[in-house]
Prior knowledge:
Keywords: ATP-binding, Folate biosynthesis, Ligase, Magnesium, Metal-binding, Nucleotide-binding. Pathway: Cofactor biosynthesis; tetrahydrofolylpolyglutamate biosynthesis; Cofactor biosynthesis; tetrahydrofolate biosynthesis; 7,8-dihydrofolate from 2-amino-4-hydroxy-6-hydroxymethyl-7,8-dihydropteridine diphosphate and 4-aminobenzoate: step 2/2. By secondary structure, the chain is α/β, with parallel strands linked by helices. The chain has 2 domains: 3-277, UDP-N-acetylmuramoyl-L-alanine:D-glutamate ligase, CATH 3.40.1190.10; 284-403, Alpha-Beta Complex (Protein-Tyrosine Phosphatase, Chain A), CATH 3.90.190.20. The chain has helices at residues 3-13, 18-21, 31-39, 58-71, 100-116, 121-135, 172-175, 179-186, 203-215, 241-255, 263-271, 273-277, 300-312, 330-333, 356-365, 376-386, 399-403; strands at residues 48-53, 76-79, 91-93, 96-97, 140-144, 161-164, 196-198, 220-222, 284-287, 291-294, 318-322, 342-345, 369-372, 392-396.
Amino acid sequence: xxxxxxxxxxxxxxxxxxQHVGTVAFKKDLTNTLKLAEHLNHPEDKFQxxxxxxxxxxxxxxxxxxxxxxxxxxxxxxxxxxxxxxFRERIRINxxxxxxxxxxxxxxxxxTFLEENHLSFFEMTVGMAFQYFAEQKxxxxxxxxxxxxxxxxxxxxxxxLSVITNIGWDHMNLLGNTLEEIAFEKAGIIKEKxxxxxxxxxxxxxxxxxxxxxxxxxxxxxxxxxxxxxVLDSDLxxxxxxxxxxxxxxxxxxxxxxxxxxxxxxxxxxLNVGKNTGLKGRWTILSDKPLIVADTAHNKNxxxxxxxxxxxxxxxxxxxxxxxxNDKDIDSILPFLPKKAEYFxxxxxxxxxxxxxxxxxxLQEAGFKATVFNSITQxxxxxxxxATKNDMIYIGGSTFVVAEVI
Length: 406
């Protein structure tokens, strides 16, 4: 194991990593992050930023905005989570991942402080990203919220703009059991007198957003009022991207006050998101015959939209390579999963992965046809063996499932 791998392993081993262990990793407090920011001499104040929260679509919306700003000639930092294959995907400048040396040096220099103050994986990663963006003198950084908003480690920045993509059912045990409670947590990224862009909303969540914006004298813009017919094309091919494109477009109109962004720049930026930012796992087509699609949608709202698109595809047979994490409310996603499909299931390769036998039992009780495999890769190999060129294979259920095949 090289020094970089050892460093990342050490980071993972510090107070729990939410992606791997779940809710016990969530800290309802910004004290540690503020301490670290002070220790690093406040890197978050040394660059302009855009803050992006919401239940689904944060990564796509962040990447759309970053891609357009890059196309316009700016040096753009992009902080997203989780990563698919390598930790360094989380921190990029103009699509280029943070160097292994920076990761190693940052931890080495600050290790005593990080240990003494019991910083979690997420807190130290945010500190690393902010330090990197400050040192590299980015023109702007697009910062994606990790979880929630109000008490998320990223919420120490003073952005040019706050963006909330939508509110859905996810992490209720941490963020609240009603859409209003979840919206309140997400609305915590709205700042004093700073414009806020809202993507999708419901009657309940609109009320929360409007109240929070009024309290903070923040101008508020609702992107869903943009007509569908005006939405630009993009290399992000999921049908659900229409909402993210509207949200990004509205945000970019406001960012024109700070940056020179042409309409051509928006068109080209939207068309080259993958190339410019390295975004993967959003309706990613791995093969045409058979059609093989991988998507990281993992909660009720996300899966509902993606499964609608699966059903719209033309295929003879559908094979679902599927796995979930153990805090997933399986009953809430079952109604959206296609019944006329064969499920090839396995436990994602993280400690938080749900045992495949438990998932199989749930699926079979609901009338699905499911077979258990030892790994996601084995499940995919078997699905490939079964599929003919007129069939479809869908890979998903969790970010970690996609990470194993992409």
